[in-house]
């Protein structure tokens, strides 16, 4: 018995902003009979994560391709792995049986053959307490990124001030919610009025602004932080990082999660004033979600509790069908998504 699996791939390397026309759908045939002893698992993919970092994998070259095995280069024609939730359809792995739900590294494809040696990249989903998509968004790697970066890199204390960029996005909205729960003063920036309203009206941010409506970012940021910024959670880089550093307090911390404004333009680079960094003793630290895998259980337990008790909102933006993946991905760089961008490929 076999299944045909359609998958999304790139037609060629992408070095600027991605367009739908850069992608195509190809088909592969997979056998349902797996080699006994191989530990392989065949998964039918239900929900997959759409993430900005994938663009760096699609370039001719990016430093990220060397730095992490999760971000290796993608070649034209190759399947593209991504985080997601699926259902086991065949298993030669004693840890899984048919119809088990799993979460972990699957792909932008209808079925993923998880090889035995890669089976550590998936785990069984034993709970049906929350919608499955939550395990791709707030209870998935976006949540872990926010949790690891905010608590370990920013090292927040109650009452401190926090600035978050791309604040209505997947990681940003969660950072802001953790910061409010801790008792910080939180300001976010985002690219539309609808996003700004979401931050203040639903997520409890103290203030938010539309960065596309300001001509002078440094003075805008100053207006929202008259007493300075203690922590900046950076999702965008570029001029936003420069404006944040100029407004940081003594011993401020910058958690560099990502620099999306620089992903589509190789010439664009932040040039923060390094005198500020020296004299204000600012710490600027990059990090990867993978650095905080040891915190995963703690993160899941605390975050589930916040969601269960209505203290945290889960903000998702779900499209449907494998074919919608290129548009969903393109939209990340145009600011189309509100919250975690996910594509549902199939019903359970
Ligand atoms: N370090 C890690 O392990 C890790 C893990 C996950 C994500 N990340 C990084 O975290 C950042 C956010 O990722 P995410 O998954 O949460 O994505 P996201 O925020 O859900 O989606 C991307 C958002 O970025 C904003 N954006 C796009 N182009 C921009 C530009 N030129 N300038 C300013 N904002 C821009 C858009 O919102 P607006 O409408 O507000 O512009 C867009 O909706 C990215 O840099 C990503 O690479 C890092």
Automatic annotation (TrEMBL):
Residue span(s) of domain Enoyl reductase (ER): 16-343
This protein's UniProt keywords: Oxidoreductase
Keyword Oxidoreductase: yes
Keyword Oxidoreductase: yes
MF annotations from Gene Ontology: oxidoreductase activity, acting on the CH-CH group of donors, NAD or NADP as acceptor
Record-linked Gene3D superfamilies: Medium-chain alcohol dehydrogenases, catalytic domain (3.90.180.10), NAD(P)-binding Rossmann-like Domain (3.40.50.720)
Pfam families in the record: ADH_N_2, ADH_zinc_N
Protein name: Enoyl reductase (ER) domain-containing protein
């Amino acid at each position: 018995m076999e299944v045909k699996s359609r998958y999304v791939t790139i037609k060629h390397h992408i070095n600027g902003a991605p367009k739908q026309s850069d992608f195509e759908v190809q088909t592969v045939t997979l056998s349902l009979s797996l080699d006994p002893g191989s530990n392989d698992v065949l998964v039918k993919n239900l929900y997959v994560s759409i993430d900005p970092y994938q663009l760096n994998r699609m370039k001719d070259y990016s430093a990220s391709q060397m730095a992490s095995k999760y971000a290796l280069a993608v070649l034209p024609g190759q399947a593209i792995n991504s985080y997601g939730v699926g259902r086991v359809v065949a298993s030669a792995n004693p840890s899984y049986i048919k119809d088990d739900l799993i979460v972990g590294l699957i792909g932008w494809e209808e079925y993923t053959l998880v090889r035995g040696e890669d089976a550590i990249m998936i785990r069984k989903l034993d709970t049906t307490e929350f919608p499955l998509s939550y395990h791709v968004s707030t209870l998935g790697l976006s949540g872990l990124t926010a949790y690891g970066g905010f608590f370990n890199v920013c090292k927040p204390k109650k009452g401190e001030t926090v600035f978050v960029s791309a604040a209505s996005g997947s990681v940003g909205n969660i950072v802001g919610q953790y910061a409010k729960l801790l008792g910080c003063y939180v300001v976010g920036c985002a690219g539309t009025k609808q996003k700004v309203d979401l931050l203040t009206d639903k997520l409890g941010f103290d203030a938010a602004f539309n960065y596309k409506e300001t001509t002078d970012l440094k003075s805008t940021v100053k207006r929202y932080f008259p007493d300075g910024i203690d922590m900046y959670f950076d999702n965008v880089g570029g001029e936003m990082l420069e404006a944040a550093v100029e407004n940081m307090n003594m011993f401020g911390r910058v958690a560099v999660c990502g620099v999306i404004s620089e992903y589509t333009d190789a010439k664009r680079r932040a040039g923060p004033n390094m005198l500020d960094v020296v004299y204000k003793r600012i710490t600027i630290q990059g990090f990867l979600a993978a650095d905080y895998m040891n915190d995963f259980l703690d993160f899941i337990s605390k975050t589930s509790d916040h969601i269960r008790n209505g203290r945290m909102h889960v903000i998702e933006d779900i499209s449907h069908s494998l074919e919608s993946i290129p548009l969903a991905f393109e939209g990340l760089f145009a600011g189309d998504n509100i919250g975690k961008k996910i594509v549902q490929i199939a019903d359970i």
